[in-house]
Design a protein that fits this description.
The chain is mainly alpha-helical. The protein contains 22 helices and 4 strands. Strand 3 and strand 4 (149-150) form a beta hairpin. The N and C termini lie far apart (66 Å). The chain crosses the membrane at residues 34-54, 168-191, 211-234, 246-266, 286-303, 332-354, 389-412, 433-451, 457-476.
């Protein structure tokens, strides 16, 4: 069997598909010589509208969010499958993945240090978008006879769009389900597998190592797919148990590693922040200037924290609570952890360490070229400037990040699949086989093709989902008003009572 031929065939299939889909999705408007995808501004506008409408809960409600994940409020008899902490861990595991490592590296290569600033802004604004969609995810969830829960956009979008008639509501919900299935299969699955293999190959000798031979990528993907399959068969409870242990540990290890690199370069930190701020408003070598770097920052932040995409409400809807707004407050922490903390740490490490691979990438951008940076390897190079053996530790962190993201997106994608094809043991097992096949494919294809197709599917989800959120804003406002009134009057149930 010609294994290398199989790998080439897979890669050759995905490249034209990714480019064809992207040409339709990323419709660009040109103003004053600057082209920008309209969908990026759709995300930004939604986040700003929600932040204003709900008086910026990302700033005044963080304390209460922390109390909720600590288990201070609620009842043991509340309906649902997982705790607030497990729901947050599952959702964070779907966002705190290689987008924080590889995606940020791509952003600061194409957009320079200034892209970091716009990623932070997008993360802060996205907190409120997540707040709205997760409140609705719990509000309209359905609990099945076996105790499992289906919620998120698959339940609230039909209600949002029913004013246009049931056929329109069903069609729009179907479009969302198809898009999130493919985003889960590509961005939540193939991207993770791709970059896990890239880092494993990097630390085992690169082009001269054992993972560079014919069939190595295919074999790596098969092993990873088997491990994923063993976990996802157990559903959200199994996923929640795994991510509840993996996410806090892997995030702590990664952030600690970033702190070590920053500590070794402490004298360069002020200059790095200066470069991030000046680069945001005075970028060099970026097509479109300020608008160009803003788009890159917002686009990569959207891929990282997925605010407005409709994915997180699927995990959050399984929470044990009788108060939908409570999970909305918990979800505020998700983009903060993902984008404001972890993405910023990654960007700082790259800007401060300035590995040669980043310098070369920036030089190519300045020369008008379009480099295809290998994101996770670039980040690995940055860590290696301080601790030469750290790429091995990063390889482990990458594997854990990728694995937790993979299993969470398997749950999200399965809900899309059962929305389209029905809920039965056969359809669920068929889905799990197909999802694991995408894991294998992801280890083989080119990174740029994966990112292109993933971004396209992500923005289709956001287009439909945010439209639904606008229509259901009055429902969220009422839920939040009643919940906060009960909190102020001390009428919320307390676990410590």
């Amino acid at each position: 069997m010609d294994v290398s031929g199989i790998e080439t065939a897979i890669d050759n299939f995905f490249a034209p598909v990714a480019n064809a889909v992207a040409s339709v999705i990323f419709y660009e408007l040109t103003v004053a010589g600057v082209s920008f995808p309209l969908i990026v501004f759709w995300l930004v506008a939604g986040a700003i509208v929600f932040t204003i409408a709900f008086r910026a809960p990302q700033f005044w409600a963080l304390g209460h969010s922390i109390d909720l994940i600590r288990g201070k409020f609620g009842s043991k008899d509340d309906p649902g499958e997982v705790t607030h902490f497990q729901a947050l861990s599952s959702a964070v595991s779907g966002t705190v993945g290689l987008g924080n490592i590889a995606g940020v590296a791509v952003a600061v290569t194409l957009g320079g240090a200034g892209a970091t600033f716009w990623m932070i802004v997008a993360g802060l604004l996205g907190m409120c978008t997540k707040f709205v969609e997760c409140t609705l995810g719990v509000k309209y969830r359905e609990q099945h006879e076996d105790g499992t829960v289906t919620g998120g956009p698959f339940r609230y979008l039909p209600i949002a769009f029913e004013r246009f008639g049931k056929p329109v509501a069903a069609a729009l919900t179907g479009v969302f389900a198809v898009a999130i299935f493919f985003f889960g299969a590509v961005g939540g699955n193939m991207f993770q597998a791709n970059q896990t293999y890239a880092q494993a190959r990097n630390v085992t000798g690169g082009a001269d190592g054992p993972l560079a031979g014919d069939g190595a990528a295919l074999a790596f993907g098969i092993v990873l797919a088997v491990l994923v399959g063993l976990v996802i068969i157990g559903g959200i409870k199994s996923i929640g148990q795994v991510t509840g242990k993996l996410v806090p540990g892997m995030a702590a290890v990664y952030v600690l590693a970033c702190i070590v690199v920053i500590a070794f370069n402490l004298e360069h930190v002020p200059a790095a922040f200066g470069e991030i701020i000046t680069g945001a408003f005075n970028p060099e070598g970026v097509t479109g200037g300020i608008v160009g770097v803003l788009i890159i920052g917002f686009q990569r932040a959207a891929f990282s924290n997925e605010a407005g995409v409709g994915s997180a409400p699927i995990a959050h809807s399984a929470v044990k609570t009788s108060r939908p707004a409570s999970e909305g407050f918990v979800s505020l922490l998700e983009p903060f952890i993902d984008t404001v903390i972890i993405c910023t740490m990654t960007a700082l490490v790259i800007v401060i360490a300035a590995p040669q691979s980043w310098i070369d990438g920036r030089a190519a951008v300045a020369a008008g070229e379009s480099p295809d940076p290998d994101g996770v390897v670039l980040t690995s190079d940055a860590f290696a400037t301080v601790v030469p053996w750290f790429p091995y530790i990063l390889a482990i962190a990458v594997a854990l990040f990728a694995f937790s993201t993979l299993i969470t997106w398997a749950y999200y994608t399965q809900k899309a699949w059962t929305t389209l094809f029905g809920r039965s043991v056969f359809t669920e097992r068929l889905f799990q086989v197909i999802f694991c096949l995408f894991t294998v494919f992801g280890s083989v294809v080119t990174l740029s093709d994966v990112i292109t197709l993933a971004d396209s599917m992500l923005f289709v989800c956001a287009l439909v989902n945010i439209f639904g959120l606008y229509l259901l804003m009055p429902v969220v406002r009422q839920e939040v008003r009643e919940y906060w009134a009960d909190k102020k009057a001390d009428r919320l149930e307390r676990m410590d009572a």
